[in-house]
Structures are given as structure tokens and as C-alpha cells.
Amino acid sequence: MLTLFEHGSHKNILWHDLGGGEMVQANQHVIIDGEDSIILDPGGHKIYSQLFGDVSTHLPPGGIRYIFLSHQDPDIVAAINGWLMVSEATAFASSLWMRFIPHFGVDELVVERLKPIPDEGMSLPFGAGHLKFVPAPFLHSAGNFHVYDPASKILYTGDLGASIGAETMMVEDFDAHVPSMKGFHQRYMPSNAILRRFVQTARALDIECIAPQHGAIFKGRELVGALLDWLETLEAGVDLMPDGPFAIPG
Ligand code: FE
Q1: What distance in angstroms lies between residue 152's CA and the mean position of ligand 1's atoms?
Q2: What is the pTM of this model?
Q3: Are 156 and 146 in contact (CB under 8 A)?
Q4: Cα of 61 to ligand 1 centre, how many Å?
């Protein structure tokens, strides 16, 4: 467990070392402010019981209040039924995925607590302030959101800024960190055009830390700026594909 920010009753923590085996490393972020709490992208079945136990020891009585799902991938959503069954939490995901997520086995008893985030995003009253669910469509999912926490100035970016196989949990040397991000972003992100839209959006926010769902965290304005600069010029997805029809297997 790592604490990214703590001030008064506001705390931002993450679990980064649950899972293993063939599962891609994933971070499970939790924000607490007074009586309010939210878990971001809680993950799948194999980590569910340990994470639920660990998270519960940090929560105010009443348990987890909100669950945020940045998009519909299994490493984010697979255990959503368990989380809804053992809590009174309200879960949020893009309106695009409301009819798809129930295929993960969401029980009729709890499915009404799964709420849509409209394409324009939303602001959620939280603790002494608000959390902002900021639109990040196609990064990498068609229905995709980031969470901006004004109290800690952390932007949670899901798969954007993710790294695979990074050796430390906090990025220290940006240039040395690039190889652990590059292949993932080139294949999973759709284009430079949409990355630039994200960079413009992020530059309009006051960000001290960018926290992705996989791999290391970018703490400090210098590293945040370096990541935004890198994404701004990165060619990805369709930019890198040859023109013309796809080759049909022989
Ligand atoms: Fe994903």
C-alpha cells in the first residue's frame, strides 16, 4: 500500500502489489474524505477478497460509498458484483457500458446501483469538495473517464500513462521510464489526435500527480509535464498502421 496524499481528513492511497501470475499488474486507488470514500477500478476476482479486506480497514464506518469504473475492461470491472453485494456503494461507469457490464454477472438486487456517467462527464460531491469525472473518450475505450481530485491535485488516468514492468512504483527518471510505456500506448491508444485532446484538457487542470491504473505514478509537476509533452507528440494506433485494407490471412 502507498499513500499518495494526506491532508486533514483527505487521503489518497493505492494498492499496487495484489495479483500476480498471468494478470497484468494493476493499481487499485482509494480516495477518502471524512465520511466519503471511493475505489477506482477495483479489478477482478482474484484480488477481490484481499483488496476488500485491506480497503475496509481504512474506511469510515459504513464502508465504501462509491465505485468508479474508468471503462469496461475485465481488470477493472470483473469483480463489480462482489463489491456491490458486500456494500451499499453506488458504482459509476460510462453510459455506453450500462448494458454490457451486467454480463460480468451483476445481480438483479444490485444492478440499480450501477449508474451511467454521461458523455460530458460529471462532478460528484465528495467530502468537503467534489471529484470530477473528466471525459477521456477513446483513451483507450470508447466510453472512458478520468478522475480529477482537486483536493490532492491528482489526475487518475486509467490506462493512459500506464506502464508494464516498471521497476519502481514512483517514476524517477522520465526518459528511462519511456520504454515501459511506449509499446502499450502505441498499440492500445487510438491516435495522436485524441492524445492531443487529452493533453489540452490536462493542461487546463492544476495537476501535481498523474496516477494510472497500471505501473508507476508521476508525482511532481516536472514529471507530469514530461508525460504530457511525451503524449502530445506520440504517434499511436491508426497513425502507425499501413494504409489500405487489412491483409486477409491466407
Ligand atoms: Fe483497459
Answers
A1: 24
A2: 0.96
A3: yes
A4: 32
Give me ligand 1 centre to Cα 159, in Å: 6
**Tens of pLDDT, residues 77-119:** 999 999 999 999 999 999 999 999 999 999 988 999 999 999 9
Pick the CATH number of 2-239 from 3.60.15.10, 3.40.50.920, 3.40.50.2300, 3.40.1190.10: 3.60.15.10
User: What is the C-alpha separation between 212 and 156, in angstroms, rounded?
Assistant: 6
Q: How far is the CA of 115 from the centre of ligand 1 (A)?
A: 19
What are 154's strand-pairing partners? 149, 209
Give the tens place of pLDDT for each residue, 217-228. Answer: 999 999 999 999
Tell whether the model's pLDDT for residue 167 goes beyond 90.
Answer: no
Distance, CA 160 to ligand 1 centroid (Å)?
A: 9
CA 71 to centroid of ligand 1, rounded, Å: 7
Contact 19, 27 (CB under 8 A): no
